[in-house]
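User: Please predict the structure of the protein below. I'd like the answer in structure-token form so I can feed it into my own downstream comparison script.

Assistant: Understood. Taking the following sequence of 371 residues as input:
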Amino acid sequence: MISIGKKEGDVSNYLSEENRKLRETLSKLKRELDLMKEPPLLVCDVLKTVDKKAIVRLPNGSHFFVNVSPLLIGKLSAGDRVLAEQKSLVLVDRMDKSKTHSVEHFLIIDKPNVDWSSIGGLRGQIREIKEVIELPLKRPDLFGKVGILPPKGILLYGPSGTGKTLLARAVAASTNSTFIEIVGSELVQKFIGEGAKLVKDIFKLAREKAPSIIFIDELDAIASERVDIGTSGEREVQRTFMQLLSEIDGFNHLDDVKIIGATNRVDILDQAIVRPGRLDRLIEIPYPEFEERNEIFKIHTKNMTLDNVDLGKLSSLSEDFSGAEIRSVCTEAGYFAMRDKRTRVKFPDFSSAIKKIKKDEGDNKYKVMFG
């Protein structure tokens, strides 16, 4: 009898536990079902509050004058991120503070640590950049004493891989400035319909993080010579370009924000961007000459273990190579040594690397010409 009663008690406990688990599962499923039935809410930004209403901006850029839930009246301010019902757009809840600079998701923002000594050659160009960008940020008082105004920015032009970005990062490091890098072609392709707003946000961000340097690579993507084409894409590019000009004009010459543009196609730039008062200092960054190539080889081989390598001869063999290509040569030479199970890099490794880089460059040019 005791054994039978014990078994019945065990079964009863087991059933009670299973019943409890089933009730919990059912309750959880009901909550999930209720969530699925709830209509989604819109995320929008408050632009202005007016009495018991507000002006909001939806993600598509549209602006609406909407009602505010009684629970939120008096608790909202411009810049708040809120939730609104889809049909009536009544504001029902407040989220975290709006991240007004959505551009931060695609910008490169950092404090570079590139030293001037890591740049081979380009003595004259470095001197000009120091005078136009570094000196106004470090010693703005000098310009007041002399009675002149420095340029607001500069334009670096020349072939790819010659060091335009490296120079911009180096001057940002030397002035301890926030480096804000954006690629013009990405601005147009990714953000069609809101390019002008994003340009405005970029410059606002630069002011907040000053001293700062805005580096616009592939500037020709948004600043090429304007043509009368009625497509929406062309109109959007022109709106973005006009906003860029407006933002540059809004800066004081001695502000602690500087603009550096870079392009491979200076010939197609709209003259409005390089007129006096804008990016009016043009600095060419050409392919390095023999002595400059020799310096670049020294920079990129200083940590390599070399075995009887004549850098002067390598500089002669690498005529018309950019600084980026010379760096690739050094990397490839190291790979050739490792494939041969060596830690010392020899001259044949470099010569083979030069041939490989020349072949790769030739193949790329062939693809561009003939698809």
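That's the full token string. The CA atoms of residues 101 and 205 lie 7 Å apart.
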